[in-house]
Structures are given as structure tokens and as C-alpha cells.
UniProtKB/TrEMBL annotation:
Entry keywords, A to Z: DNA-binding
GO molecular function: DNA binding
Name of the protein this chain belongs to: Helix-turn-helix transcriptional regulator
Domain of life from the UniProt record: Bacteria
InterPro entries in alphabetical order: Homeodomain-like_sf, HTH_TetR
Amino acid sequence: MCSEVSKWQESVSFQAKELFQTTKHSLIELGYDGFTFSLLADKLNVARGTLYKYYENKDELISSFLVFEMNEFLLELKQIDTIKGFKRQFDFLMWKIDMRVRRGWREAINAFLIS
């Protein structure tokens, strides 16, 4: 995926992070069935063909998005190396997981309220 993301960043007018954030918000707002490349392209102000240049279909894009999200979360978790003691490390992990879950729920609720 890394080469896929760097290829994307070199050839379009926005970053992969923007693509994945818009994908995330669209999935929360519309659900899997309502999510289409046409709607995503409109939100990103690009042609639908631009998305198909890098992703064969929405499943491939969603898979890349999920890998991106997991990698971002793993980067956040690397902060554990700076924390001493098992209890403090455990508390840190629980806090990070809790914050991720809360953020996801907050985004889902906001999308529901907006629609």
C-alpha cells in the first residue's frame, strides 16, 4: 500500500490522507451500499476516472483505507515505548483504544445528525 499511496500523492492534487478522510466520512454518512466512486469523486472535486486509475473498485479502496487507518493507529501506539511500567503502559493502551472508539461514535452520530 505504501507505494500505492506515494503514487497517488505524486499524481493528484490532494494527499492520500484527504482521500481516506473523505472515504471515512462518506462511509459513516452513507454506509457501504450508499458509498460510490461518483459521490466520492464529487466530494474530492475530481473525475471518477481518477479514482479508478488507482483502485479497481470500492472494495479495493475501502481495504486500502482500513490498512491506512490501522497504520495510523499503530503509529499512535508506538508512544508506549516512552512510558515506564506495565500499569502505566496498560492504562495508556486502554485510553488510546477508548479514544478511538469514542471518536468513531462521535463521527457516526455527527453524520447521522447532519443527514
